[in-house]
Design a protein that fits this description.
Radius of gyration: 25 Å
Largest sheet: 6 strands, antiparallel
Shape: globular
Helix content: 40-55%
Strand content: 15-25%
Number of helices: 29
Structural class: alpha+beta
Strand order of the largest sheet: 2-3-1-9-8-10
């Protein structure tokens, strides 16, 4: 695992400037690779590559980068891990290569030198962001793994081309302007993160998952996909599992076992995150069944029953016999981290579960360098509660005989407080239930006739047309979720459509971004077996009822896990990995967030509507409504602006 950078200034560039700039870019990524770093410059070509190394496989100098191919033609920097490197090495046995070490980096480079980039990446199993310089043709090639587990930003600004694992690498070299990308800002306000294909800056982009970018000597850039979720879905439909349910479950278990076992290979200490939920418990159960010694597992707990899963994780760990460590953190421990989030996430990023993710990464890194995680199971195997909510709302809207729009208006005739008071009068109800707030959030969804439009609104935090003060009443073209057009054209069922769109955007740009930045801030490598592309592809071959059956999600994963863990330890309501954000914004974070929302630059420079934000802040603080997610998104935007644009 590493941080990589590159800079292309053009032929016959100033060698000192080239080296100085690439060094500053690379130094900005020290946290991603504290075990060493180096740069390589070719002033004649005007190109430089840099890398910070977190040594995982082959700890010797033979694994150092930038790395040159045996024939001297190619130079590569690479971030990630490829888990079938030894299989690929065996395929090169007849090439008489004088191997310098046993790193996966060297295997990838020599495969590319012989098979080419496109053929090689299609054979790779793993997570990776790769940059390859061809000295002979003067071509720079950038590659991102199929599901977007590892990040790679690139820019073309002021006649120069640059790339880095994180935006702070580009900023550290001062190779991009700080001009804000308004499309990305709109998308952030709507979803709480910036989607791949964009960045918050106008002159930088995140390379899309499963894509290759080729840049020729004259600066011409060509981007194309070598793998896509849509193709995986189509292949799954065309090669639907033909056996019975049990054979599908057995095949999935075999595949998951292989994915886990491959990710347990490391030359450094290894462990796993364990929340006690289905996904992480399945991964740990398979790890322990493979390992001949107790697997190190890590959990984090809060002194808040609604957000504490540590007890469940402890029971699972005890049953499996892992070497378990749990850390209970106070609210103050979590709150102390909050001001650091804008440094860790150098783009606006709203997901408050980044707080526990950062805390557990710090805890885990004290003992191990690599940790396996259960991320990715919800998207592939139908685990999100919102899949049930969206389907239920759709059914209600379609079955209202006299017009769902009228019902929507009727539900908002009473205020949330009046609804709570009314519901509180019902037998068996004590005081407020906060159902009034939920009614107000569901009501607008009933008036939307199109299911996919309704789902996008369900996921949305703000409507940028309402929030942007400089365009009241003007309709702007909205960012559309990747995969929407595909789902419409293929007439996928509603749940499958939601899974496709979540896999293509939410999983990549929220879940995986959260995990990558939080873990790498502590120099911890996190591996995600459930996002092995083979698992994703197999998931789309499986019968729908083995994913979501009625109100039960992850059916196949549950049946696998029941072989290792008693179902009474597993079958409980899904709680998620969150924090009591609504309470914090009314209590210990009220002043901090209030100061961020009051910053004049938020409104003068970014054009937000102060009155709309003030209104929701007052409603939230008073307890009349729960606007915690919406307000947190603006607070994170403001803190990012303070840190990176000031």
């Amino acid at each position: 695992m590493c941080g990589i950078t590159g800079l292309w200034l053009g032929r016959n560039s100033d060698g000192d400037k080239l080296r100085d700039t690439i060094t500053r870019m690379t130094d900005a990524l020290l946290h991603r690779g504290p075990d060493g770093g180096d740069v390589w410059c070719d002033s004649d070509a005007g190109l430089a590559l840099g890398q910070r190394r977190l040594a995982i496989i082959d700890l010797s100098d033979a694994g150092k980068q930038p790395m040159h191919s045996a024939d001297g033609r190619y130079v590569m920097v690479y971030n990630g891990e490829v888990y079938n490197a030894e299989d690929l090495r065996a395929k090169l046995a007849g090439e008489n290569i004088a191997w310098r070490g046993h790193s996966d980096s060297e295997v990838i480079l020599e495969c590319m030198a012989r098979w080419g980039v496109r053929d090689t990446v299609k054979r790779l199993i793993g997570m990776f962001a790769i940059a390859l310089w061809d000295k002979k043709t003067g071509k720079l090639t950038l590659v991102r793994d199929r599901l977007g587990i590892k990040p790679l930003y690139w820019s073309r600004f002021d006649g120069n081309i640059a790339f880095a694992s994180e935006l702070k690498g580009l900023i550290g070299g001062n190779v991009i302007s700080r001009e804000v990308n308004r499309t990305a800002l709109d998308a952030y306000l709507r979803f709480g993160y910036v989607p791949s294909g964009h960045s918050i800056y106008a002159h930088a982009k995140m390379l899309q998952p499963g894509h290759i970018l080729e840049i020729a000597d004259e600066g011409h850039a060509s981007e194309f996909a070598y793998w896509s979720v849509e193709d995986a879905v189509l292949s799954g439909q065309n090669h639907h599992w033909s056996g019975d349910d049990q054979s599908a479950i057995d095949a999935l278990e075999d595949l998951l076992r292989d994915a886990v076992e491959r990710r347990m290979i490391a030359d450094v200490p290894l462990g796993a995150f364990l929340s006690g939920g289905i996904d992480s418990s399945t991964i740990v159960a398979l790890m322990q069944s493979i390992s001949d010694q107790p697997v190190k597992t890590y959990s984090i707990g809060f002194d808040h029953d609604a957000y504490n899963e540590a007890a469940f994780a402890g029971e699972v760990a005890k049953h499996l016999g892992t070497d378990h460590t749990e850390l209970y953190v106070t609210a103050q421990d979590a709150l102390d981290l909050v001001p650091r989030l804008s440094e860790i996430y150098d783009e606006p990023f709203f997901d408050s579960s980044s707080i526990p993710t950062s805390l557990i990464s710090t805890l885990t890194r004290k003992e191990v360098t690599v940790a396996l995680s259960g991320d990715g199971g919800d998207e592939t195997f139908g685990g999100y509660n919102r899949y049930l909510w969206a389907r239920q709302i759709s059914n209600v809207a379609k079955n209202i005989p006299f017009g769902s729009s009228l019902v929507s208006k009727g539900l908002t005739a009473l205020s949330p407080g009046q609804w709570d008071a009314l519901i509180g009068l019902l037998p068996g109800k004590r005081g407020t239930t906060a159902l009034g707030d939920k009614i107000y959030k569901v009501a607008p969804l009933l008036s939307i006739r199109d299911d996919l439009d309704r789902y996008q609104v369900l996921l949305s935090l703000w409507d940028p047309d309402v929030l942007m003060a400089d365009r009241p009443g003007k309709a702007h073209k909205k960012f559309r979720v990747p995969g929407e057009k595909f789902c419409r054209n293929r007439n996928l069922d509603y749940v499958s459509s939601m899974q496709v769109m979540d896999t293509m955007m939410y999983m990549v740009d929220d879940v995986l971004t959260k995990v990558d930045r939080a873990s790498m801030a502590s120099s911890l490598e996190v591996r995600v077996p459930l996002i092995d592309h083979r698992v994703i592809e197999f998931g789309w071959r499986m019968p729908t009822h083995l994913k979501l059956d009625g109100a039960v999600g992850k059916v196949a994963l549950r049946k696998i896990l029941y072989k290792y863990v008693p179902r009474e330890l597993i079958d409980r309501p899904k709680t998620g990995f969150g924090v009591p954000l609504a309470e914090w914004l009314r209590g210990p974070l009220k002043e901090w967030v209030g100061d961020l929302l009051a910053r004049d630059a938020l409104y003068s420079d970014l054009g937000l509507n102060r009155a709309e934000i003030d209104k929701r802040f007052n409603e939230h603080v008073s307890g009349r409504r729960n606007w915690s997610h919406q307000l947190w998104a603006i607070a994170m935007l403001s803190d990012w602006q303070r840190r990176w644009l000031s």
